[in-house]
Structures are given as C-alpha cells and as structure tokens.
Amino acid sequence: MELEFAPATGVLSGIWLLVAIPLVSAAILLLLGKRADKWGHWLGVLAVASSFVLGLIFFIKLGGLDAEHRSAELNLFDFIDVGSLKVDFGLLFDPLSGVFVLLITGVGSLIHLYAVGYMEHDSGRRRFFGYFNLFVAAMLLLVLGNNYVMLYFGWEGVGLASYLLISFWYTRPSAATAGKKAFLMNRVGDAGLAIAIFLMFATLGTTNYQEVFAGASSLTSTTALVMGILLLLGAAGKSGQFPLQAWLPDAMEGPTPVSALIHAATMVTAGVYLIARSNPIFSANETLQLIVVSVGALTLLIGCVIGAAKDDIKRVLAWSTVSQIGYMFLGVGLGGVAYSLAIIHLLAHGFFKANMFLGAGSVMHGMHDQVDIRRFGGLSKYMRITWLTFMMGWLAIIGIPPLSGFFTKEPIIAAAFDRPGWTGWLFGGAAMLGAGLTAFYMTRLFVLTFHGPERYTEENKHPHESPAIMTIPLILLAIGSVVSGWVMSTTVVDWLNPVFGEQPEHHESLWITVLSIVLTLAGAGLAWALFRRGTALEPQPAGVVVTAARRNLYTDAFNEAVFERPGIYLTRALVYLDGKGIDGLVNGLAAAVGGGSSRLRRLQTGFVRSYALSMLTGAMLVVGAFLAIQLGWLA
User: Fold this and answer.
1) How far is CA 463 from CA 143, 327, 378, 386, in A?
2) Which tens digit of pLDDT belongs to each residue from 393-434?
C-alpha cells in the first residue's frame, strides 16, 4: 500500500501546539514549586482541555479534506542528520492519530477535572498535575510523531511519567515497588522497540513512516518476521500483554485518576497504536499475524481468569484492562477490516473503563479508601450517581445491546471466527469464552459493590456520594459508554480507510452474535445467583484453578524463579568474585610489595661499618665472578 502524506497547511500547521501546551503547563507546574499550589491544578485541567478543543478543530478540518489527502505532515526541524541517517522532528496528523488525540485529550480532560476533587486534600496536588500534564504531552508526541524515533521519544516519556505517577505516594513501600516494577518490565519491551528501529535503519535506511511502509514489501520474510516480533515485544510491554503483563495490576498503587488515565485512555493503548500504525509490516507476514493473534487470545483469557478471583476493586478492573487489550491485539492480529474494529473497541474502552475506574475512586472516596469488594454491599442506596454511571460501564463492557461494548467487541469475535481453517474456531472460541468470563467477573464486582447485604468495616458506617466535580465526569463518561459504540461502528471504519486501505464490508454472523449474548447472560446470571446475598469476608479454601488465579496463575512466581532469583544469585557471585578474586589479587599484590619493602628496610641500619662490609662483600663477588670466567669454570 503506497502512502502519501500531505504537508500541513493553514490551520493544520498548528498541530505542534497539541504537544506544546501540556508540556509547557507541566514545566510551569514543576518549576514554580509551591508558588503554584493554589492554582496549579486548574492550569493542568485548562492545558489538556485546550489541547482537546484544538484537536477537535484540527479533526474537523481534516475531515473536510478528500480521502486521498486526509493527512497533515509537519516537519519542525532536522533532529538527527549524521551520514545517511536523517531524522526529522516531525508530526503527522491523519485519521488514526486524530482519533487518538481526541481520546487522549477528551477522556484525559474529564479525568483531570475529576482529579481536582479526588486529590483535594493531598499536599502534592500541584506536583501530581505536573506529572499528569507531562504524561499527556508524551502520549500526544507518541501518536503524533511522523517517524519511529519520534514515537520512541513519546514512548519513553510515557514510561517516565507513568513511573512518577504510579509511585506518586513514594513513602508507601508498595507504591515505590510498583513504580520500579512497571519501569523495569517496560524496559524489556522498550529494548525490543529500540532494536526494531535500528533494524529498520539497517535494512531500509530510514525510520520515517512513509518510507518504511513503502519499503516493507521489499523486506525478506525473515527480516519482516524479526522486525515484527521486536515491535510486538515493545507493544506487549506498554499494553500489558503476555508475557509482560505483571506490572499492570500493580500499577493500582498510584492514585485512582492515574489508574483511569493509564488503563483507559492512554498508556495501555500505545501498543495497539504501534501495531495498527505498523500495519504494512504486520500484514506482510502471516506467521507474524498468527503470533499477534495468539498473544491477544491468550492474554484476554489470562485477564478474565485472574480477574474473577480478585477482591480488590481496582485490581479487578486492572485485569479487566489486560483482557480487553487482549481483544484489541486479537483484532490488529487478524488484519484487514479487524484493524479498524480494534481501534473502535479501543475508543469505546476508553469511555467505559475510565468511567468504571473513576466510579471505583468515587466508591473509595465515600468508603475511607476501602478497596475490598467483600466489605462493600448495598452502596446503591447511598451513592445513586456512582451506582448508575458504574452500571452503564458494566453493561457496556460485558456487551449488552445497545451499549458500546456490544457494537465494538462482537465484531472482533465474529472476525476471529472468519479466520480460515481450524485457527478460526480456536481464536473465535477463545474470544467467545472470554465474553462469558467477562460477564461473570464484572457482574460479581458490580453486585458485591452495590447490591446485597452491607458488609462494612467499623469506620464505614456512613457512606456518602462524591462531590459534583467528581460525579459530572462520571455522568459524561457514562453517556459516552452508552452511545459511543453505535456512533463509531457506523463511521470510524470508513474514516480509517486512508490508513488501513479500503476494506471489504464486514458481515456479522447472526448465530455468533446470539451465542455470544447467551454466554454473556449466562455468565452474568451465574454471578448474580452466587453473589446477590453477599460473600465471605475472608478468602475461603479453593480448588486448583481459583488458587492459581489468586496467585496470578503463578506468572509472578515464574518471573521470580526464572529471572529475579538467578539475577540475585549472579549478582552475589559477581560481588564475591569482585571482592575475593579481583580485589583479592590487587590487595594481595599490594600486600606482597608492602611486606617485601618493610623487610628490606630493616637492612638500612645507619652504621658505616655495615655499609663498608656490604661494599667489600659486593667487590669480592664481582672479582670472584671475573676469576671464574678467566679460569673457565662457568664455560
């Protein structure tokens, strides 16, 4: 597929402002220090809201262009110009980056507004909004860059900001550890992305999207496969996909608005964006597509199984995110029209998952930061707005028509079944099973939180609704959860055609849709029957599967056994070798020289007769040597 990016002109030449505004805001908030404490949070909200308004203007302007020229490329300056390596600091605003900009800044603005209320009594609120704005700026650079080096800049910026936000309450050991875990696991994926970029330059001589995609068809099958696997490794790290998913649920140690921003609108969607943007590379190799689909299918099932066994409200939602991103990876792996379907599900997920994360924060706000769903129950009486908005998110994620999840998840399941051969049944069946499990664990979460008997702890006798600054974003996100799916399923596929190419019209099978809804209702009904009367307040003895799910299917234990412990033992061995071996050799040599010197020093007595005797002995030895040579004794 030949891509032509039109230069940015007129209004669209201002797309650099999208990144600049939140970046400048972050700099002001972080550099001014306590002088900005009183008004800094409002500057943070205003910066992201301004980027949203600008993004909307640019988006409308882009929509006015004909499909062939529906893009705007802006080269700001030469960034790297060494030999044959030329990298522009350039931005690209096209249909794909356009929808991401609206999602990041739109949902991001609501999360920022919510955070004003949520972080009201936190002494570090200004610093929090500085990091928040930095995160948004980095994410916008990631999706707006016109080459892989710019994408990598944003990629690392997002990683840094997420580390600062996850470990925001750094005095808590669990938060500090979670931040380090996220940072280290992301480094593994980032190394893959960096090597992929090096490989592009080595084989194609460029990192610019337009030139890389034009040359993708000329790559050998092996090169395309290796490059794709390295890109997939980077995507799996950022999006919490198998085998790099363990950091994502631990990221819940950050404040709840961070969870909403990372797990709904921005960071975890970066991997899906990377694969969708690199579609000419992934579409060029069937083995590569099979690997992506397999990762997506496996991850969505892992997320469902573990999510069903968790009791922490935010961790259930985190594993739900792992699962839903799995559906998106399944979509981008299937290729063709499923690229667009994955993006639609990504956008709808941004609404309903942000809605539920902020709803969870609202519940915590009214329940003294309690997160254990076993100690909730009956909250629908006390928190009507939170209950109704959370209900919209719950119905959307499990795919009840006519809410958004039904219009975005069902087509991906149908597309999986359309895959030729037995793999269609395998991946379609995995997606279908995931739908039933999603309905089960999300209904369990909803029922135990808002219905059934009250199981509160002593300090939570009087739950209360959150203030308007927190409930208004919830209401707007709930409306998005209801209507976004239908709106996007009717418009976004055509909108994305300039990026993914013209796709044949997708026809869904009625029996697949009916079976999926039946499975969903069965899963939800089972959860309702099991948990409507409450649950035990402490973990009960369980079978093999539930025990494994409670321990994250032993993935953490595996990482500890295979990577962490050998690393610790290797470090200890190297420290011992360094201390006893290398340092021992150096110290031993020094001791030998020092000891020998101290013994030789004793010969220096200071008496003239001793020195005269030494000279006489030396002279006699020299004369003796000459005589021995003359007489031939040494011949």
Assistant:
1) 41, 36, 10, 12
2) 899 998 888 888 888 888 888 888 888 778 888 888 899 999
